[in-house]
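debug: dumping io for the single-chain case to check the tokenizer round-trip. Nothing else runs in this session.
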Amino acid sequence: MEKSQISIALKELREKSPKRNFNQSVDILITLKDIDMKKQENKIEIYTILPHTRGKKIKICGLVDQSLASLAKKSLDNVVLLEDFKKYDKKKDIKKLATEYDFFVAQDNIMTKIATTFGKVLGPKKKMPNPKAGCIIPGNIPSLEPIVERLNKTVKLISGNEKAIKTCIGRQDMQNEELIDNILAVYSALITKLPNEASNIKNVMLKFTMGPGYIIDKGIKEK
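debug: decoded output
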């Protein structure tokens, strides 16, 4: 997939999408082919770091004990201390927490208690603190700022059983070059995880939050 192809799709997206009175997200939808997503080895779960942020600050919640309390409160949007886990004895309260935050950062030596309290909800929602995203941290970490900076550029590519990957790569008011860089980063990260790389791509589509999609690349045609 070339930059020129993406540039044409972005131009079409901007010109033909209905005008909205808010700054829409730019989503990428990659449809796969010739791959059995029911097989465990083919399931996709990638955390990749984009060259640029997505134009909107993400929200991060820390699950820590007193040893990291002050550091976490300084850097993160919310902190749930170990001593307060008992307050989350109802699923509706954990679901509300899961809805409000994009990532959860966890202290490594209390992961068992985190899993016991929050795993039943965060697990199915793909929000459990994940080492692949660098979200499990030691209790003696000197600063959380590098993690916050990295997570603001991190996207999750998760397939489940579906032959499609969808994620937000930016906002409507971002420069085309920034969007193109982010799109190529997602595409490159994904094809390295596919059995036949680009041959498993059916098409790549861009769309705003509310509007039609525009195909960037129809993939490699069957010979």
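debug: round-trip ok. The chain is about 30% helix and 25% strand.
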